Amino acid sequence: MLISNAFAADAPVNGAGGTMELIFMLVIFGLIFYFMIFRPQSKRVKEHKNLMSSLGKGDEVLTSGGILGKIAKISDDNDYVLLTISETTEITIKKDYISAVLPKGSIKSL
Predict the structure, then answer these.
(1) How distant is the alpha carbon of residue 9 from its chain centre?
(2) 55 contacts 92 by C-beta, under 8 angstroms
(3) Structure pTM?
(4) What pLDDT was estimated at residue 16?
(5) How many angstroms separate the Cα of 109 from the Cα of each of 5, 102, 105, 106?
(6) In terms of Cα–Cα distance, which of 80, 76, 50 is closest to 63?
(7) Cα gap 57→71, rounded to integer Å
């Protein structure tokens, strides 16, 4: 009587606009995923592989566990490295756990 009835608006006839917007949004999310997640991770993996290939005997390294040591023995046939921590202490670790190569004399300066 005093209040008029509310009716829903008619749906648009052209449904192609909705699918194009959906495809556009998926492409945008794909680009964001590539540039924010996939590309930086692949760069880190590539840098770590270059680090592993450049290791040599006598290099001072830092492991991911925080151990500083000098490479005493490195072999190409397996993935293990013998690190000298002090004059009497040597440990064997996997190459993958080496996170950085330090400048020469870093261990002595500590």
Answers:
(1) 50
(2) no
(3) 0.65
(4) 55
(5) 84, 12, 6, 5
(6) 80
(7) 5
* Burial class of residue 84 (count of CB atoms within 10 Å of its CB; 0-12, 13-18, 19+): middle
Burial 50-77 (b: 16+ CB within 10 A, else e): eeeeeeeeebbbbbeeeeebbbeebeee
Torsions phi, psi for 68 (to 5 deg)? -100, 135
Q: What is the pLDDT of residues 22-68, one digit of tens each?
A: 999 999 999 999 999 999 999 999 998 998 888 889 999 999 999 99
Cα–Cα distance measured from residue 92 to residue 71, given in angstroms and rounded to the nearest whole number: 10
Which token pair is 103? 């400048």
